[in-house]
Amino acid sequence: MSPEVWVAAILGASVGAIVTASVVHLRRKRAAIAATLVPHRTRQLMSVLQAGAVIIRRDRRSAFSNNAAGALGVARVDGALNGDVADLAEEAWRREEPVEAEIAVQRGVLSTPRFVHVRVVPLDEDLCLALANDNTDMRAAEQSRRDFAVNVSHELKTPIGALSLLAETIEEGADDPEMVRKFAKKMRKESRRLTKLIQEIIEISRLQGAGSVVEHEDLQLDGVVHEAVEAARLGADARQIRIVTDIKARPTVLGDRDLLVMALRNLIDNAVQYSDERSEVAVAVGARDGVASVTVVDRGIGIEPKDQERIFERFYRADPARARDTGGTGLGLSIVKHIAHQHSGSVSLWSEPGVGSTFTFKLSVHQEES
């Protein structure tokens, strides 16, 4: 190796060592400054807070942030600070009072934004304290409540309006007994639909509350299925639809009998409503690897792929016109989903348009059959 190469190598190594030493020194200096700005006891206190906590400096960087702040994406351990949080700090210094706002924080290009409420309090001329809490779930719940109120109002208006019009028609044609009987029959149909809707609204509101499953007991799942089938048989007979059962196992589950009967009856009623007359609905009970299942199979119209992901939403109907004809409220499958969740179970769907649908309701086996 020539002397020139040796010299270049020595110079390169020296420069690298100097740069490394400078970086280490700068980091130590920053750490020392931060330690001076944020005492050890304060760091310990901030570290145990559930809320994201950040000490903000005048240079729009953080002097210290806890793990929660990092998880929320408002600050990083290297001192980098979310721009919106830094703007709030500058406003707090300018106004000399606490300021707060909700900001959208997106971590990664493909991630869904999280909505974070941030309150910034000026401590002195050089430091601010920011406290951040994730409001995403709260916003979603509030939106869900608003949507529910709007949907309930809309759904109630239809049968109530129909009853009002039918009553007026009967009043005007009181001298025509045939017309009175015809419209009185329609009034009974609308009143039954209204009663069912109100009952299901009450039920789903109860299910969404904490601790709604209060009557836990050991239940033979095949007995629950038999009760649900018998409850649904009247509607099936009216459309000449045969309900057949296939009991492959008799597992015992832990749950609320009334709620489980309601869930399974809703699945069977749904299969009957969306099947052609004089067809067949199959209900099977099975158990495997500690999981009990009830499958409800129909050979009806099926469900389009675009509707399958939303079929368990409240008031969602894949076929609104058919739902009106059959008296469907759009709440039955949503109730099924909530009952499954209340029992730490699940409900799933397989469907193909023109072929039919299969709903599978799963629960944990509480006791193996003997």
Our estimate of the beta-strand percent is: 15-25%
| Overall domain count | 3
Total strands: the figure is 12
CATH architecture of the largest domain: 2-Layer Sandwich
Query: Tell me about the biggest sheet?
Result: 5 strands, antiparallel
| Overall mean confidence score, pLDDT | 79
What pattern of helices and strands is seen along the backbone?
HHEEHHEEEHHEHEEHEEHHHEE
Report on this model:
The chain has 370 residues and is an alpha+beta fold. The protein has 3 domains: 38-134, Beta-Lactamase (2-Layer Sandwich), CATH 3.30.450; 136-209, Orthogonal Bundle (Helix Hairpins), CATH 1.10.287; 213-370, Heat Shock Protein 90, CATH 3.30.565. It contains 11 helices and 12 strands. A hairpin with a 4-residue loop joins strand 1 and strand 2. The longest helix has 37 residues, at 136-172. 28% of the residues are buried.
